[in-house]
Amino acid sequence: MAKTVGYEFKEHLIQKQAKAEAAMLKEFRNGNFTMEKPLIKYNPYFVNDLAAVMLFRTEEETAITVRVLGKAKEGDFYQTFPKGKEHVLPIVGLYSNYENKIEVYPYQKYSQKVVHTIKTPEVAGAKLVEYMETTPEYMQDNVIFLCPAVSDLAIAVDYAGDVRLNFTVPMVWDIKRSPNGNILLGSERLMKMPYFVSGIYEMSPVGKIYKEYRVPHGYHHDQITLPNGDIAALNCDLDNGTVEDMAVIIDKDTGHVKRTIKFSNFIKPGSQKSGSWSDEDWFHCNAIWYDEPSNSLTFSGRHINAMVNIDFDTEELNWIISDPEGWPEEYQQFMFKPIGEGEFDWQYEQHANLITPLGDVMCFDNHHYGSQNPDKYLSANDSFSRGVKYRIDTDKMEIEQLWQYGKERGKEFFSPYICNVLYYNEGHYLTHSGGIAFDGEGNASEQLGPFAKIDDPSVTLESITVETINDEKVLELKVNSNYYRANKFTLYSKDGNNLSLGRGQLLGSLGETPQMDYDIPAEDTGELLPEKHQAHITDEVDMFTFESKFEKGQLVMLLLESEKEIRRYFISTSRGERGAMCTGTFLTDDDRDTRTVVTKEGLDGAYKVKVIVDDKKYDTGITITA
C-alpha cells in the first residue's frame, strides 16, 4: 500500500543549535582566524536573521569592542566583551537588505579598528513599520521589541523605525529580560490549539537558546521571575476541562513544578461574565504579577473583567479591581469604591496588570464591551482602549484613577484583545495598543484581528505603541500588523555576556496528555487512512503532533496501540469561534484543519498510530517510540 500519512522527525531547536555551534567551533579551531580576517557566521542559530557571530583569535589576552554601525551615527549599537584570546562575539542589530559595517578593535585602542561587512537579505518584518516618531536622544540604543499576535513574527524597531531584529521562528507571548541579561519568551512548539506552547525559552537576542522551561499542559500569555529566581507561569487546569485558569511555580534550576495555583480555589467559575466569557475559558488569565512588599500575586482575568490579588503563601483573596455590578454578594467585600474628583472608568477585558513601586495598579484597559451589563455593551466604533493607573487603599477599600492614556483617541486606539502597559518611573509609561483592526470602510472591527483577517482580506491590522513622560508624548510607533505586547531594551545586555557556548538544557516536563476513558466501536478496515485527510505526523523528542483534515462534526479518535496498552485521544472537529485569540500565529485558514499533540510522558516502548473516523478504524503506517 502506498503511504498516505506523512512523517518527519523534527529536532528540537536546542539540538539543532548544538550541532550547528559545534560545527562552527570546529571550523574556527581548525582555521587561522584573526581580527583582520575573522570567521563570520550569519544567523548561526536559525532564529534571528538580523544577527551573526564573529570568531577570531588575538595573540594577547584582550577585551574587544564591537560597534555595529547604524545608517546614522545615532543608530550605532556597541558592546565591549571580556578579556580573552579566543573571541566568539554575537553581532546583533543588523539592518535588512543592507551592507552592514561592523567595527572591531581591542578595548581602548580605536586606532587598531578593523571594519567588516555583513550583507543581509530582505527579511519578512522589515516592511511592517508605518512610522516611528521619537528622537535618538530619547531612544538611544534601545529598541521596541514586539511579540507576535498573528502570522507576522517578532521584530525589534530602533529610533528611526528600522527593524534591527527579525525572528524567523514563531516564538510567542510576553518577552521579559531576565536579571542575568537573557530574554524569556514562549517557545514555538505548539501543544494545543490555538496557542498553548510547550514552555518558556531563556535565550540571547542573537538567537541562542540556553534553556526551555517546559510547562505541563501548555504555557500561555505571561510569566514573571520571582525574587528567588523561580518562574511563575500561566497554564491550564486540564483536569477540570478548562483553560487559562491556573499558574505554576517552576524551579529555576530543574524546571520542575514546585507548586500549582488553581484560580477556581478563590473565584468560583461563573461569578462574573464578560462579553467574551465561555464555560471552558471562564477566567482567561492573561497576566501574572508578583508584588514583593505585599508578598502577593495579581492575575488579570479578561473574562471576569477583573484584576484579582491573592496572598502568595496562603492563596487567600486580598482584593478585586472590577466594576462591582453583577458580582455575587460574597465578593463585594473585596471590591473598591471609586473616590476623587477626577474622571474615573472601570476597566473591561483588561490585560497586563502590574503594581508600581508606590503600590499603584496599572493595566491596559481594552474596554471591550465597556460594561458588565450586556444591555449596555458598546460597539467597536463607539469603543476606546487605554493605559490606566489606579491608586488603591486596602484599608478603606477605595480606588482613585490617577492617569490614563488612549481614551481620547477613540476607535483609532481601540484593541479588543491583547496589549500592555509598562512602568518606567512616575509619570513615564509605555502604552501598547496592539490589536487594532479596521474593515475596508474604516470601521473598527467587531472581530478580533486574527479572525477578521481570515474572514475579510480587506481588513487592516495595526499596532500603536506610545510612550509618555508627564503626559507629553515622547514616542509613537505604528506597525501594520497586530502585536501581542511591546517591551523596550537594548539588544546588547549590559548585565550578561550576550552569548554563552554549549548545549542548551531541556528542563521540566510537558505533563501527560489526558486520555479518553471510553472506546468508540469501529470496524477495523485494515486500510491506511484515506489520502483525502492529508494527514501528517511530526515526531519530536518529547511529543508528537498529528495534523489532518476532517469535516465539521465528524467523530474522530487518535489511537496509540502497543503490546501492553491502547491509548485513546479525542480529536475535536467542532468549529466554534473563541471569544479570545491572543495570538493567532498558529491559525490556518482552512476550518477542516485539526492538530492533536500527544506528549511522550507516560509512554513506554513502540506504539502504532491509528485513527477512528466515524465508525471505521484506519492505520497510519507510523510507529511512535518513547
List descriptors.
626 residues; mainly beta; Immunoglobulin-like; Neuraminidase; 6-stranded mixed sheet
Question: Mind explaining what this structure looks like?
Answer:
This protein is mainly beta and 626 residues long. The chain has three domains: 32-119, Arylsulphate sulphotransferase monomer, N-terminal domain (Immunoglobulin-like, Sandwich), CATH 2.60.40.3100; 124-508, Neuraminidase; 513-625, Immunoglobulin-like. It is 5% helix and 44% strand. The protein has four helices and 42 strands. The strands form nine sheets. Strands 11, 12, 13, 14, 15 and 34 form a six-stranded mixed β-sheet that branches. Strands 2, 3, 4, 5 and 6 form a five-stranded antiparallel β-sheet that branches. A hairpin with a 2-residue loop joins strand 29 (420-425) and strand 30 (428-438). The longest helix is centred in the N-terminal third of the chain and has 17 residues, at 13-29. 45% of the residues are buried.
Would you kindly provide a brief summary of this structure?
With 626 residues, the protein is mainly beta. Helix content is 5%, strand content 44%.
What is the class of the largest domain in the CATH system? Mainly Beta
Output mean pLDDT. Answer: 96
The overall number of domains is: 3
Number of helices: 4
Number of beta-strand segments: 42
Cα-to-Cα separation, first versus last residue? 26 Å
Structural shape: globular
Mind telling me which CATH architecture of the largest domain this is? 6 Propeller
Which structural class fits the helix and strand makeup?
mainly beta
The major beta sheet can be summarized as: 6 strands, mixed
Percent in helix: under 10%
- Going by CATH, the homologous superfamily of the largest domain would be TolB, C-terminal domain
Rg, Å, rounded: 25 Å
Low-confidence stretches: none
- CATH topology group of the largest domain: Neuraminidase
β-strand percent reads 35-45%
